[in-house]
Design a protein that fits this description.
Elements lengths: L21 H37 L4 H18 L3 H10 L7 H9 L12 H4 L13 H17 L3 H7 L2 H11 L2 H15 L3 H9 L2 H10 L5 H18 L10 H9 L1 H10 L8 H21 L1
Helix pairs in contact: 1-2, 1-3, 2-4, 2-6, 4-6, 6-9, 8-9, 9-12, 11-12, 11-13, 12-15, 13-14, 14-15
């Protein structure tokens, strides 16, 4: 989605600072408000159109079409995140069932499909309507769907509630334990976004023994190193930013990490998770990578 400034708004978006009479000032303010109102409606139409375009493909029967739709949605979310006004408009659209992104992602790309066995071929020859065939999700599709889910939950907090209604934590934990490195990395990021400020999802994560799953990956030296680093970042974010309340749902997380990773690694994770709240985003991301590397080194030493 490319949000271009309307041509008719040139020169009208902001009133000039010059001495004016009260009547002229009132007229100028009225014009300014009208321009803002028209611009907001235009942005809403563009956001709605972009969502409909992406969701149409994301709900398709074939995986290659769903991949195209997910790429469109991911590009759209990145564009929306550039402005607070577009984020607010996007949040408004998510109250409409037909435009809800999270539901489409779980129903079509992250849905756990059961193998359908055809016991006989009679339905083909008896004139009965044929079965609807939907191609299974590819690795690329699952990874893209997780990125779209992550973006939605970060921009629109109510999406975490909708994700919970689709058993998000259980589905993501299954992806984490059965899929490849590409999907597992995206899954860890999506888990953080779903649990952020969501007690119900945090409790579900604890019920699914999520910490044990992540600890098993980070301890396994046969696992891809980048994935192990991603697990370290996950634990740092989980303790430092997700699990920060006085009596959080994940109350036993520190004890679980100490039991699973050892006293020294657990202490390092706790201390490192308090990093850089005053740092800018780029410096914070760099600090996160460095601390995750130290966590990994502490595990490899003992």
């Amino acid at each position: 989605m490319y949000l271009k400034k309307a041509l008719w708004a040139e020169g009208l978006a902001a009133p000039k600072a010059s001495p004016e009479s009260d009547e002229q000032q009132t007229q100028s303010t009225a014009v300014h408000e009208l321009v803002n109102s028209l611009n907001r409606k235009r942005l809403y139409r563009e956001i709605t159109l972009a969502l409909k375009t992406g969701l149409r493909d994301a709900r398709a029967e074939f995986s290659f079409l769903r991949v195209r739709g997910l790429r469109t949605l991911l590009k759209f979310l990145r564009s929306v995140a550039e402005s607070d006004s577009t984020v607010q408009l996007f949040c408004q659209t998510q109250s409409l069932p037909d435009l809800q992104v999270v539901g489409a992602v779980f129903e079509h790309s992250l849905k756990e499909r059961e193998e359908e066995e055809v016991e006989s071929m009679d339905h083909i020859y008896d004139g009965v309507e044929s079965l609807k065939i939907t191609s299974p999700s590819t690795d690329a599709e699952v990874a893209l769907a997780l990125r779209v889910l992550e973006g939605c939950c970060l921009l629109h907090r109510e999406s975490t509630v909708l994700a919970h209604h689709h058993n998000a934590i259980q589905i993501l934990m299954n992806i984490l334990s059965t899929r490849g490195v590409l999907e597992q990395g995206a899954c860890l990021d999506a888990l953080i976004s779903i649990m952020l400020d969501s007690s119900v999802n945090q409790m579900e994560f604890e019920a699914c023994n999520g910490i044990e799953e992540v600890a098993e990956l980070i301890r396994d030296k046969q696992v891809d190193e980048n994935l192990r680093l991603k697990c370290g970042e996950f634990l740092l974010l989980l303790i430092g930013h997700v699990n920060v309340r006085e009596r959080p749902p994940l109350a036993a997380i520190h004890e679980d990490i100490r039991r699973l990773l050892g006293e020294k690694s657990a202490s390092l994770i706790w201390a490192a998770s308090q990093f850089g709240s005053t740092l800018d985003p780029k410096e914070r991301l760099t600090a996160l990578h460095i601390q995750a590397r130290r966590v990994l080194e502490s595990l490899d030493l003992y």
